[in-house]
Every structure is written in C-alpha cells, then in structure tokens.
Amino acid sequence: MKNTKIVATIGPASEEKETLRHMIEAGMNVARLNFSHGEYAWFEMVINRLRELSEELRIPVAILADMQGPRIRIEVDKEIVLGKGERIHVSDVAYREVFSKSKAKQPICYLDVAKMADRLRVGDAILIEDGVVALQVVAKHGAHAVEAAALADCRIKNRKGVILPDTPLDLPILSEKDLRDLAFVLGQEVDYVGLSFVGSADDIRTARDEMRKVVGDEARLPQIVAKIERKEAIKHLKSILKTTDAVMVARGDLGIEMPESEVAILQKTIIRESLGAMKPVIVATQMMKSMVDNARPTRAEVSDVSNAVIDHADAVMLSEESAMGKYPVEAIAMMAEIIEKTEESPFDDVYQELDLNMKTEYAAVIRSVYQLAKSFEAKAILLLSMSGHTARLISHFRPETEILVATNSKKTWYTLALVWGIQPFNFEGDANHDGYIDRLMKEAKAAGKLAAGDETAVFLGRTADRRTLDLVGIRRVR
C-alpha cells in the first residue's frame, strides 16, 4: 500500500473503460480532466466510466476538473520565423483588421485578451509556448502596440499560450469559458476543481462565490485546488493556503514565471507550507515525460518522483504521459513502484514531529491519536470521519501506521482519495455509527490489512454537537 497518491490526466490514450480499469488497478487515485481541451459529451462519458469503475472495484477515484483559467494566447496569420535580435510588433486581436491594412515591414502578432498590449512596458518579457519563444519589449508604439525583439531564434505559431511574467495583470480568475465549464462540472458532482493562475486568496473566494451561484448555499461544494504557478501566488502563499482546500505545485508555468534554478526550492517551500496548513499538495508537470514515447522513465525522472515522496507531498501527477502517451498504464505502475520503494526506504521517515499551524483543541486531540499509535506500535489507526476533516488532520503527521477511515459520505470517500496515507471505507446508508469501527475491522481483515490480535489506535471523532470528543483508545482486533 503506497501512501503518496497518484493523479493521472485522462485523454485520448486513456479514455477507454478497460484502460481506466487497468490504471486504477495500477495505482491511480485521482483522475484529472483538463478543461483546456475537450467537449462536454466526452467529459461526461469519462466521468461516468470512472464512477462505475469506482463502485465496481470498491476503490475511490476522485475526479479533478482542471479549469483553463485566464490563459492568454497568441494569434498569427501564419507561422512567423525570427532570428535572434529580429523584431516583431505585438498588438491586441481587436486591432487585427487595422494592422492588416498597414504596410509595416515588420511581422505582427496579436494577443487574444482585450487591452493586453496596453499593459506591456519596455523591458517586459513575452514568453510563448511554455517559454520556447522569448521576446522582450523594446519600444511602445501608441496605446495598442509594442515592438519586441527575439532573444533567440524562434518560430511563433498560432494559438500558443502566452505568459507575461513582468506585466501587471488584472484578469478575472474565471473567464467566460471557465464559468460555463464550472456550471457543467458542478452538475457532474466532481470532487475537486483546479483553479489556474491563482494570484491571491480573493481568487479562491471568487471561485467559491461563483459555485454558490450555481448550486445554492446549502450544497456541498467541490474542493478547490489552487495551482501555484505565478509570482503573485508565491508572494501570497500563506493567505492562499488559509483559503484553499488543496494546492498544486504547477511547475510548468511556475518555471517560466520564476527562474528555473529556483523551481526545486519553491517546490519544497510550497510542500512544507502546505503540510503546516494541513492542505493536500500535488506535485505536477513533466514528472515522467519521457514515458510519453518510451516504456521506461529516465533516471532523473525517477529521482524527481522520489524526491517529491521524500518531501511528503500528498500526490504526484502525470499529464501528457497518461493523457496522450503510448504507455498510460505502465507510467502509473512505474510511478507506484517508485513511490513504494521510496516509502520503504529510511529517507522517507519523518524524524521529527511535523509543525501544525492549526492551534486548536481538536488538533491537539488528533496529535494524541498519532502519538498513541506511535507509542503502542499500533498496526493501524482507525477513524470515523464524515466530512474528511479528521482524516486530513491525522494524515498531516505522516504516521508510519496505516490509516483506515470509515465514512458514511460517498463524497468524502471520493475526496479522501487525494489525501496522503488515507484508506477510506464507504459505509453510506449505514446509520449505526457506533458499529462503524467493528465493521471497519471486519472489512480490513477481509482485505488482509488487519489480522486477529493486531492492536489498533481508535478515534471516533467529534460528537454530533461538536462540543465534546469521544475517547481515544487502543483496541485489539478479534
């Protein structure tokens, strides 16, 4: 049993039901749906297949709907080839017709977000296609165009993404497309929503407000995964962590906005802060990219996954490897093997108790559960967790003991699939809370996770009135 979870992006290479089945059996815990591409009918088909397989295999697979966000794209009439130092005009797409009639000798490209060229200043970088194309603004030409120089030989292709790391942006966190996508995924009852290009805690609040407009005040919302990929997000990391439900270290755009040499340090910083805030954290982008075409990863990719595990990230993520690669199942199986080998090693051990920013009576009680299990060398920690809060708290301490969680909420069953070390059991429809631990022991024995005579640390969580706490204790499996 691996503790670190695997997020896998679903795409043309992995959409078939039998492929999805093999991916779950190989170790996929969360299925990511990238809303930058795809039709609603396709997303609905994949979601239905995943839910059917979770029920059939009795393995929760959470669904993460990843919003495109306020993505800026370049528009050109045809591919433009520039040599180092050659110049190009950059304007807004609204002025395309005006410039098409001009007799300018230099080529021109357009940004598809209104008034974006107005914001560019001399010295600002314009990075296209994940930084493959790097331009720098050298002159302003009125309010609607700038002149930029190529920093290296490059080719500018139509509809590629643009990042403006030096330019002040005030784009809404959810575009019109995102709002339509959000209404769709809320209807599909996905478990997590990925929020792209988060800059502040206000972005998280805005997204929640928009979701409330769709489902009302009483509905349980999907949990928000704030993607940390901008300078602004690093600056406001602590307040973002207080507001979001989970975070993703989105190393692709982060490595463009920030110096590449800092990405590994930023990853460790974000993981450490997320652990302290008790928020699940996913490490993403190019973890095993060579497996898009090759049956085995590079040694550097193996080390990358291992280091994320050693840092105690909740999950590691596959993108194009599982969405469009030749070996989606093999990539998950290899990632699971790396995780298991790393977790078996002494390098994964937590040598000192992890800090917890949450200073509450309940957090102190959960700490005592962790310490009790450690002192008695318990075989497992058994919990009741209806909302998932108790389970996430105990997960924070990264105990070496297995964590078995009973819940009567299918929504909680799914969302806990992302959380480090948690093995959730769904007892939906069973109103006998007092019998949950006995049932949990019985099912864990049947699954080979516990045996008669094993000692377990048991915590029943908060009582219904949330004012008192049930007792912590040691129970022997019969």
Count of helices?
17
Secondary structural class = alpha/beta
What is the number of beta strands? 22
The percent range for helix content is: 25-40%
- What fraction of the residues are assigned to beta strands by DSSP? 15-25%
Distance between the termini: 23 Å
Mean pLDDT, as a whole number? Answer: 92
From the spread of the alpha carbons, the general shape counts as: elongated
**Backbone CA Rg:** 24 Å
The low-pLDDT segments are: none
Strand order of the largest sheet: 1-2-3-13-14-15-16-17
Q: Tell me about the largest β-sheet.
A: 8 strands, parallel, barrel
Draw up the topology in text:
Blueprint: E1 5-9, H1 17-26, E2 30-34, H2 40-57, E3 62-66, E4 72-75, E5 80-82, E6 87-92, H3 96-100, E7 108-111, H4 116-119, E8 125-128, E9 133-140, E10 145-150, E11 154-156, E12 161-163, H5 176-187, E13 192-195, H6 201-215, E14 223-228, H7 231-235, H8 237-243, E15 246-250, H9 251-257, H10 263-276, E16 281-284, H11 299-310, E17 315-318, H12 320-323, H13 328-344, H14 361-375, E18 380-384, H15 389-396, E19 402-407, H16 410-415, E20 422-426, H17 436-446, E21 455-459, E22 472-476
Parallel strand pairs: 1-2, 1-17, 2-3, 3-13, 6-7, 13-14, 14-15, 15-16, 16-17, 18-19, 18-21, 19-20
Antiparallel strand pairs: 4-7, 4-12, 5-11, 6-10, 8-9, 8-12, 9-10, 21-22
